[in-house]
Amino acid sequence: MSVFDEDAPRKKKTHEIGQDLSLLSVDELSERIGQLKEEIRRLEIERTAKGATRNAADALFRKG
Length: 64
Hints:
By secondary structure, this protein is mostly helical. Helix content is 59%, strand content 0%. The chain has a domain at 26-64. The model has no long low-confidence stretch (mean pLDDT 85).
C-alpha cells in the first residue's frame, strides 16, 4: 500500500494575489483569468443583492 493516495481528488488550483506568474504556462494563465472572471461575477451578484436589500430596508425605515 502506497503512502500517497493517487486516487485522492486533487486540490483545485487557485490564484493567490501577488504570486509569481513567471512559472505559469499560457494555459494556466488563461485558466486563472477564467477563475478570476467567474469570481468577479459572483462578487458583483452578491453586491447587487446586498444593495437591493439595503435599499429595501432604507425605504421601509424612511416611511416611519
